[in-house]
Amino acid sequence: MSVTYLEAIREAQARALRDDPRVFIYGQDVGAFGGAFKATKNLAKEFPGRVLDSPISEDAMVGLAVGAAIEGMRPVVEMQFADFSTVGFNQIVNQAATLFWRTNVPCPITVRLPFGGTSGSGPFHSQCIEAIYAHYPGLVVLTPATVEDAYSMLLEAVAIDDPVIFCEHKFLYYHLKAEKLPSEALPVGKARIAREGRDLTIVTYSAMVHEAIEAAAELATEGWEIEVVDLRSVKPLDTDTVMASAARTGRLLCVGEAWPWGGVTAEIIARVTSEGYGLLDAPPQRLNAKDTPVPYHPNLWTAHRPTARSVASAARNLLRQ
Amino acid sequence: MLQTVHEPRSAEPPARFRETCLAACRFMLLARVLDDKLAALYRAGKIHGGVFLGRGQEALSVSVGLSLKKNDVFAPLIRDMAGRLAFGEPVIDAVRTYLGSVLGPMRGRDGNVHRGRPREGYLPMVSHLGAMISVVNGMLLARKLKTISGTVGAACIGDGATSTGAFHEALNQAAVEQLPLILVVANNQYAYSTPTSHQFACRDLVDKAAGYGVESQSVDGTDLAACLETVGNAVARARDGRGPQLVVASLLRLCGHGEHDDAGYVDSKLKASPVGRDCLKVAEEYLFRQKWMDAAQLAALRNKLVREVEEAVAQVQREPTPDPFAEEWRAIASKHLSETHQENGD
């Protein structure tokens, strides 16, 4: 018996629906069909009237969720792909994200974004746009890398009194498996040391955690001990854990699948250099996707995003400095 | 029943209609007096940011506010002072928001027309046009899920907002879910400076309703009695479970977009046409004609409302404004999740 990352997301929603009558799910094809990725499989049958198909209207989907939250509900909105959330961007960043600040009325909505690249998905079904949401005040942005976190963090997302952008990586949906669902978890806001090491720190999140761990295993055969920090949430960002790890290793490599300009990796480097400049033995580095739209063909796609190989190579360069 | 609804107005208004008209006229006059005062404060440099008046739109606006009940939802727009007051917003909330008092509902964090009390069903607008409609839908859907019945929600927009994707998505959404939404369009002939000829190409905005499968009605927005009846009927139909209602009123904005705008672009022919009538004057004359009020009573009422507004302004001017050092600077409700990291090592 094992459970995949995708099943964990389904199970978390089932439990949220079971435990809290205020929860409902709204999104395209989420009802009887069970969602484009089957993240809501059978939920409409199990929870009649609480898993609702929406028209293809991302703006109105999020607007509706905000209104329902004002009425005391806990809506979960499924975007079919993170890429399409830009159509609902206005409601997320201007309506949901400003409500509490402006009115003192909390806005507990969860917007699920199936994000990140999978082979053959191309420019409009692969994007990593967590940094854009993290840029806006008023949002919590979660990026679980494991089955356990997918489950526990989604449950916590629904319980949080603020709008949560829940970035679930499509690449992890099917092949990432755990023995069972967790009974306890680190709280949101705490990063996790995914692998301990002493020579270099890789700070990353979501699917890139697995590329980093694979790179660390490869570098271990060359005698290097690489520490991998899984951020878990990019907002809030656990600066303390990152800083402590950088202090231990003296070398920092930030890895993200998102585009490089002004992103999460840049933010981490800014924080570590401004507050922990003296901790570093070499200039901090980062590795991101290339600054182009995400390509369709696997040959191009694997070269566009960081992989275990390119992470290991970037780490080697930094270790030589 | 997807065509425009035509319901004849009764020749002899019942006594209750007299009370409604008198109440409406009072709120219209109060809104006008309050708007005029805010404009004066703006010219005196006492207001930060803009001032946006509802002059010429009070008849329509007040009809929305008066047709709603306490537990209904109301999402007004920038020219809805009359509707806001009629829905129950105290004068002092408006003054406090315009003057940035910390005692107001927005506490200086937002200003002017961006005010409301969401928990009371009174939504504070964001600036993005059409964006409030789906929020009203959400409140109505939540009530449906909670099996609360009998309440409705109204959203006010202008002709410009009908061109947005948010309008389309939200009206379609309300129709799909058959929500008791009343979408009130004030076609005031200009979106800022853009005339309707550059805003839409359909014959009449009310024609859009058919495309969404919702009922609709047009009304002369300068005629209080017509607005009360039309909006009241639309609210009643929504309350009766007949789904979303679209009301389109024709009127003219008798001021600039904001007080910074002299509205020199407004066609003088429009001003001279029936659509350019001042709805407040039309309403007062209607009340005189019905012998429900005379000029002396109107003057006395006006004096009373001026005093009420002056007192509110005088009070708010003595109230504390926001203190940046006392401000918490936290955008989320979950204290434990707020970003503690600040620039300059705060």
Structure explained in plain terms:
The complex is a heterodimer of chains A (321) and B (346). Chain A folds into two domains: 3-178, Rossmann fold, CATH 3.40.50.970; 192-320, Rossmann fold. Helices cover 38% and strands 17% of the residues of chain A. Chain A has eleven helices and 14 strands. Chain A has helices at 5-19, 43-46, 58-70, 89-103, 130-135, 147-159, 208-220, 239-249, 264-276, 298-304, 308-320, and strands at 3-4, 23-27, 51-53, 74-78, 110-115, 140-142, 164-169, 177-178, 192-195, 200-204, 226-230, 233-235, 252-255, 285-287. Chain A is globular. Chain B is of the alpha/beta class and 346 residues long. Chain B has a single domain (15-191, 203-320), classed as 3-Layer(aba) Sandwich (Rossmann fold). Helix content of chain B is 41%, strand content 9%. Chain B has a five-stranded parallel sheet with strand order 1-2-3-7-6, sandwiched between helices. The longest helix of chain B has 29 residues, at 15-43.
What is the average per-residue confidence, as pLDDT of chain B, rounded to a whole number?
94
Number of domains of chain A: 2
Fraction of helical residues of chain A: 25-40%
Shape of chain B: globular
Q: Would you list the SSEs of chain B in sequence order as H and E?
A: HHEHHHEHEEEHEHEHHH
Order of strands across the widest beta sheet of chain B? 1-2-3-7-6
Quaternary structure type: heterodimer
Sheet-strand content of chain A, in percent, reads 15-25%
For the report, how would you describe the main beta sheet of chain A?
A: 7 strands, mixed
Question: Regions of chain B with pLDDT < 50 over 5+ consecutive residues?
Answer: none
Helix/strand order of chain A? EHEHEHEHEHEHEEEEHEEHEHEHH
* Gyration radius from CA atoms of chain B, angstroms: 20 Å
- At the fourth level of CATH, the homologous superfamily of chain B is Thiamin diphosphate (ThDP)-binding fold, Pyr/PP domains
DSSP strand tally of chain B: 7
Number of domains of chain B: 1
Structural class of chain A: alpha/beta
Describe the main β-sheet of chain B briefly. Answer: 5 strands, parallel
